[in-house]
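Chapter review: from sequence to fold.
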Amino acid sequence: MRSPGPTAPARPVASARSVGSAKQTGPTKAVGGAGPAGLAGLADLAALISRYRRLLAAGCAAAAVAFALSALRPAAPAGTRVPTAARDLPSGAALSSSDIRSVTVPASAAPAGIVRSGLVGRVLAGPMRRGEPLTDARLIGPRLLSGYGPGLVAVPVRVADAAAARLLRPGDRIDVLAASAAAGDLGDGETADLGASPTTAQARPLVSAVPVIAIPGAGGETKGGIGFGGAPGVDDGTYGGDGALIVVAAHHEQAATLAGGAAGGSRLSFVIVE
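The token string follows.
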């Protein structure tokens, strides 16, 4: 009977896990590129920062100061639009749209009396330089006859009763009467009042329902520098011993009649009508 020979040592069986691990064995790469080249770049950057650290610190400090000042600086004042002359303009020029240019200025710098609308067609009272604001002082005011229609003229009339003239306001319509010294002063075809004596002054109508457009120098509302309202208690000569001056709008024929009545020595009076 044969004796068994020496038993060969058992060979270890490699598992799949151990085999996979063996395949991955080898030199390990640096994570994040932190190899020798990456470390050299970081060292260069650190050296550069160290060299210019004072300059970088000064820049950061300046930026911080600038941000702080911008936060503490008050907001700019609100601006307002102001119409100005777009070019040099002569006196008496009628404004067109090309003559006007709007600019924005601080509200505190805007002059008083700015005219912001209705400028086209207005007439300059004097010459203007380019950039000057358009104010009411630079423009001629509305005409006396503005709004009263064509074919009318402005007629000054001095009435005898200054106290009665204080009752008038612009827009009132009046009949203007002329009082003669005697009945013999009446015109042809006119008859005297039956109850009047031959020496009693007689009144005859000159014009009817003419509008009052101004009372010069009487104070109150003004239009183009001319007084437009009766001002009780004001006596600047308008309501003097020679009566009171008023201005009415009338047709040319009515103006001639009023002038003739005043030239004939008659005392003019009025009655207010609807």
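Two observations follow directly from the output. Confidence is low (pLDDT under 50) at residues 13-33, 183-196, 219-240. The first strand starts at residue 79 and ends at 85.
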